[in-house]
Design a protein that fits this description.
90 residues, alpha+beta, three-stranded antiparallel beta sheet, 4 helices, 28% strand, globular
Length: 90
């Protein structure tokens, strides 16, 4: 993660990003479509929030994009040690 921390800036994926950046592109056509057409609708429906890192030397370039889903992780389905650690926080 050194490259992202040193050479990029994290932003919420919003209209500003869509309007000012080169469209996000990767080898997965479904992800490309999501980040170009569906990302704002997904946020509006409260299904998740998307973020991206843009290159500091050229902020129009999106280096990576990701979405944090508004769902839950069931501690019962985690491996034993991890499940116990998560359950200790609740």
């Amino acid at each position: 993660m050194g490259f992202l921390l040193e050479k990029c800036t994290l932003y919420e994926f919003d209209n500003t990003i869509l309007n000012n950046c080169i469209a996000f592109g990767c080898d997965n056509p479904d992800l490309n479509e999501f980040f170009s057409k569906d990302v704002l609708d997904y946020r509006e429906a409260l299904l998740g929030k998307s973020y991206c890192f843009t290159l500091d030397e050229n902020p129009k370039i999106i280096v990576c994009a990701f979405t944090v889903s508004n769902d839950s992780i069931k501690a019962n389905f985690l491996p034993n040690a991890r499940g116990k650690k998560i359950k200790s926080y609740t």
